[in-house]
Amino acid sequence: MNSFFHAKQLKKGICLLLTIGTAFAANAQQGLSTRESSLKGQAGSVSRAPSGQQLPEQDAERLHSRMHLGLLYPLSTNGRQAPMYSNDFSFHLLMGLSKAENAFVLSGVSTVIREQAAGLQFAGVSNYVGKQTKGMQFAGVYNHTGDQLQGIQFGGVMNYAGDADGLQFAGVMNKARDVNGSQFAGVVNVAKKVKGLQFAGIINIADSSDYPVAILNFIKNGEKSIGISTDETFNLLASFRSGGRVLYGILEIGYNLKSEGDLYALGAGLGAHFAFSDRFRLNTELKSLVLDDFHEGEYSKYSLHILPALKVSERIEVFAGPSLNFVDSDMQEGKDLFKDPLWENGYGDGHLRQWYVGASAGIQFIL
């Protein structure tokens, strides 16, 4: 009997809880519907919506904030509407997200701007702009401008811009489509058409670039050649020259024929073409050359070459001309290579420095 009574009481309690819960849910739903109706009615007259609410398109276009502060999205003063806001000044401890930035943005790690940015961008790791940048991007690792850069990018590792009207500086790599300005990279620059200077530690790549400065330059409308040459100390050198219509890079490898011992040569340099006609031009080159026997001592030569060049056919060119040379060596074989310098000075532990006038000549095959 008692068991039956307790079961009956439990059943009544459950029914009561269900009734209260249903009433509470219905009341909450009614309140939410009323709030949504109120927001829809006010949407045309406000520029900031509560976090989590969807704004009509015309209001999203007007969202603007003088100051945007945050930790990372969506923990910021613009909340979940941050991707639709245009801001004048933004400061983020970790990551910032916005539609546009008008003056200044600073992020500890990364900044993501969906459309355009003006002014200054600073980020510990990366800056990303979906469309256009007018100003400067500074990032510890990577800068990205999707469509057009009008300004300067400084990237610790890499910069990318659709079309660049300005400068790109990167520790490793710059990449862009058309560049009306210059690229400076520690390793490689990549572009299509460059109106300006390309300066890289190793490689420049472009469809068109008249002024590439690197050891290797792969320019589609430029010039590449392989050649053989010798100089006043009988260094026999095989060379690869590559560049644009004006500037080019030089890479050389060879062997010294004068020394009694084995001296192997490795050289690099930069050159410039000055064309006077289709067949005759003047090539000026700044080169460095190292001779090494792989045992001990060192020999370094730095030279300025003035080389008149004549095309004897469409792809064969001969050249010869004087050079001004500076040598620093502590190898006896190196000291014996040239005996009549303009100036000579011994220093340190057996080192010898020389200035002298020499000459070089060779032939190259234009690829």
Layout of secondary structure:
Blueprint: H1 2-42, H2 57-60, E1 64-72, E2 75-76, E3 86-92, E4 95-107, E5 110-123, E6 126-129, E7 132-139, E8 142-155, E9 158-170, E10 173-176, E11 178-179, E12 182-185, E13 188-190, E14 193-200, E15 203-206, E16 208-213, E17 216-219, E18 223-231, E19 235-243, E20 247-256, E21 264-275, E22 280-292, E23 299-311, E24 316-329, H3 332-335, E25 343-347, E26 351-366
Parallel strand pairs: 1-3, 3-4, 4-5, 5-6, 5-7, 6-8, 7-8, 8-9, 9-10, 9-12, 10-13, 11-14, 12-14, 13-15, 14-16, 15-17
Antiparallel strand pairs: 1-2, 18-19, 18-26, 19-20, 20-21, 21-22, 22-23, 23-24, 24-26, 25-26
Report on this model:
Helix content is 13%, strand content 60%. The radius of gyration is 35 Å and the shape is elongated. The protein has 367 residues and is mainly β. It folds into 2 domains: 57-219, no CATH class; 223-366, Porin (Beta Barrel). The strands form 2 sheets. It has a 17-stranded mixed β-sheet that branches. The model is unreliable at 1-55 (pLDDT under 50). Strand 22 (280-292) and strand 23 (299-311) form a beta hairpin. The protein contains 3 helices and 26 strands.
Short structural description:
The protein is mainly β and 367 residues long. Helix content is 13%, strand content 60%.
Mean pLDDT: 86
Compute the number of structural domains: 2
List low-pLDDT spans: 1-55
Find the count of extended strands (DSSP E, 2+ residues). Answer: 26
Q: What is the H-and-E element order? A: HHEEEEEEEEEEEEEEEEEEEEEEEEHEE
Gyration radius over CA: 35 Å
Tell me the fraction of residues in β-strands, as a range: over 45%
Percentage of residues in helical conformation: 10-25%
Shape: elongated
C-alpha termini separation: 108 Å
What characterizes the major β-sheet? 17 strands, mixed
Helix-and-strand structural type: mainly beta
Q: Number of DSSP helices?
A: 3
Biased composition (Polar residues): 36-56
Keywords: Signal
Signal peptide: 1-25
Region (Disordered): 36-58
